[in-house]
Design brief:
The protein is mostly helical. The protein has 20 helices and 2 strands. A hairpin with a 2-residue loop joins strand 1 and strand 2. Helix 8 crosses helix 14. It is found in: Membrane.
């Protein structure tokens, strides 16, 4: 991806760099010309720092980015799924609001390196993991993004199928089946997948233009759905009066903590690769305020809309309908169905390409810079996203929130702990920018791998997900946990992984520093 920007303003005084250090008055750093060798193993145009002239994203740009990404069908399923699990509207909204305030902190901490150095996530990871070792967190993040791409694409294709079936009076789905599903559902899935790949092929500029109007359109769609359910329920009262099946006692807390970790895990992906976006920031103030204004507020508002609509569906139909597509399909209005169809398309494409294509495109380019550029990495993402069979991950709220998000959250929390510890505690935000691209630089460690980061990742990952468990028949894990004595930690996977890896990495790097500065003796 080239260093493009929505702003065309000339660089101000803060962008004037020191000829000696390459640093600006506001602390941003730019690579001097020819500072790194053209080594195809570690360098291509997409991985090099964005020049200062290209770092112009404002507070509004970052806030708008989050508005576009937060308004999507899986976000809706996340909130409505809590209602389906027994929470009332207040419990669900508070859980999601708290989760997004918590996840904002690592988002801001890892995002700091973007405006300062202009580097994407996998290059930042070189400082902690090593030039070759950075492929480990990059592949973890890329794998998760590919899975999310598949989930979003399946939900989008499913939405098209449900709504077309309603438009055609139930005959669209009354066909032969392949792998247990109507072949027309698979057709919708493939067509939606192809539409996304076509947009990806047009590049990031097309995506940015799409995002500029997609977010408000989806908000309107959610408000229309809320208004419709409110009318059906006879007012807002029934939506707010639905009682909690969990109460505020032990039953609630048993659901709350794993649900909170699941909510955090939902955006834990972006807490790693947010430098992929903040590298275009005009400064720290822009990325910090933009994210603080965009993420928690938008997700909480969307969660409120979701739980109100789901509570309303419970009042109208006697059971919560947690899928907005299934709920929209209950209308008899052809115009309403078509509007819902377009809303599903816009919402899914908006978030899927921004949140689940940018990161793996960089990550896969980092794996083989000579052969894979941003566009090829994005196309690979689209293919892998189908192979992971996303239709299985969203089959139930339990599997979606506890199994998928819980497992992902534990691993991503572990990586985030290492990145934050290395950048803030070990290096105090000071990086050798040219050294991130050189085999003779300070981040080569042992053959390109940093043993401290690898150890922290392994130990933190085992502690975070080793106790993963499922209720009988509700998931793939044993009831007593993969490692039974770690089962009590499983409900706190993201937090356990974050704290454990942070402590281990910091301790190992401190020991390494002391060893490097110890006096040498001998002949």
């Amino acid at each position: 991806m080239t260093a493009t920007s929505p702003s065309g303003r000339p660089a101000g005084p803060a962008a004037r760099t020191s000829a000696r250090t390459g640093a600006t008055a506001d602390g941003r750093v730019e690579l001097p010309p020819d500072a790194v060798p053209a080594d195809p193993r570690f360098v291509n145009g997409d991985l090099l720092p964005v020049p200062l002239a290209g770092r112009r994203w404002t507070t509004y740009n970052f806030a708008a980015l989050w508005v576009g990404m937060a308004h999507n069908i899986p976000s809706w399923l996340l909130a409505s799924g809590l209602v389906a699990l027994g929470m009332d509207w207040l419990q669900a909204v508070l859980t999601i609001a708290l989760a997004n305030v918590i996840v904002l902190l690592p988002m801001l901490l890892t995002g700091h390196a973007g405006p300062k150095y202009g580097i994407p996530f996998p290059v930042l990871a070189r400082a902690s993991f090593g030039l070759r070792g950075a492929n480990l967190p990059a592949l973890v993040r890329a794998g998760v993004a590919c899975a999310w791409f598949g989930i979003q694409t399946w939900i989008g294709g499913q939405g098209i199928f449900v709504l077309l079936d309603k438009v055609f009076g139930g005959h669209w789905g009354d066909v032969g089946r392949i792998a247990g599903q109507p072949w027309t559902l698979w057709l919708c899935f493939v067509l939606f997948w192809a539409l996304e790949l076509a947009i990806i092929h047009r590049g990031m500029d097309a995506l940015r233009r799409f995002e500029s109007w997609a977010a408000p359109f989806v908000i309107v769609g959610a408000l229309v759905l809320l208004a419709w359910v409110t009318v059906k329920a006879g007012g807002l009262g029934p939506l707010l009066d639905q009682p909690s099946a969990l109460g505020w006692g032990p039953g609630f807390w048993r659901v709350f903590f794993p649900a909170l970790m699941g909510m955090i895990a939902f955006w834990a992906t972006l807490s790693l690769n947010i430098p992929d976006f903040t590298r275009f920031g005009a400064g720290q103030r822009a990325q910090a305020w933009g994210q603080a204004l965009g993420l928690p507020t938008t997700m909480t508002l969307f969660a409120l809309l979701s739980v109100l609509v789901t509570s309303g569906s419970q009042a109208v139909y006697g059971a919560p309908v947690w899928d907005p597509v299934a709920l929209a399909a209950k209308t008899d209005s052809v115009f309403g169905l078509l509007f819902a169809l377009v809303t599903v398309l816009v919402a899914t494409i908006s978030v899927n390409i921004a949140a689940n294509v940018v990161s793996p495109a960089y990550d896969l380019a980092h794996l083989a810079p000579k052969r894979v550029d941003f566009r090829r990495g994005a196309l690979i993402t689209g293919i892998v996203g189908v192979l992971i069979m996303p239709w299985k991950l969203t089959s139930t709220p339990e599997l979606y929130i506890f199994t998928w998000l819980g497992l992902v959250g534990g691993l991503l929390g572990t990586v985030a702990g290492i990145l934050i510890a290395d950048y803030w505690l070990v290096r105090r935000t000071v990086l050798d920018l040219a050294g991130l691209y050189r085999v003779d630089g300070p981040y080569w460690y042992r053959g390109g791998w940093n043993p401290a980061a690898v150890l922290a990742f392994l130990v933190g990952g085992v502690l975070a997900v080793g106790g993963s468990h499922s209720a009988p028949g509700a998931g793939p894990f044993p009831e007593d946990g993969l490692i039974p004595f770690l089962k009590p930690l499983a409900d706190y996977g993201w937090a356990v992984g974050l704290v454990a890896s942070m402590l281990i990495h910091t301790a190992c790097m401190a020991r390494r520093t002391r060893a490097d500065h110890a006096p040498r003796t001998g002949g």
